[in-house]
Amino acid sequence: MTAWTSDDLNRIAAADELEMAPLRRNGTLRRPVPIWVVRDGDDLYVRSFRGADGGWWRTARASHAGHIRAGGVDKDVTFVEVQDDGINDRIDTAYRTKYGRFSGAYVGPMVAARSTTLRLVPR
What we know:
Layout: H1 6-14, E1 18-22, E2 33-35, E3 37-40, E4 43-46, H2 55-63, E5 65-70, E6 73-81, H3 85-99, H4 104-112, E7 118-122
Helix pairs in contact: 3-4
Organism: Streptomyces cellulosae
Pfam family, one: DUF2255
Protein name: DUF2255 family protein
């Protein structure tokens, strides 16, 4: 698998939102939706605010492929499902740290949606 460059990681992590466009079964991209993105070390992670009911998340989970745009970075990515609680604990902290300035009405659901955690891997 390809790794992120330091510049890509810094630019994407500094962005408030990431535009997510998962690949549909028919090979076309869904319309991009803005979502929150966090960094843990050399990895980037996203979660679905609506949990498993999120349309973009269901598409991403089915295809494991899509396109992202944030901080001036445009990349095709692979979505890797995350099950590890240790990583999810760090991602919870990253969401609270990065987005804590927003109401708990937003951060709370992101932390609670840990079953929807996806790692973004550049292609």
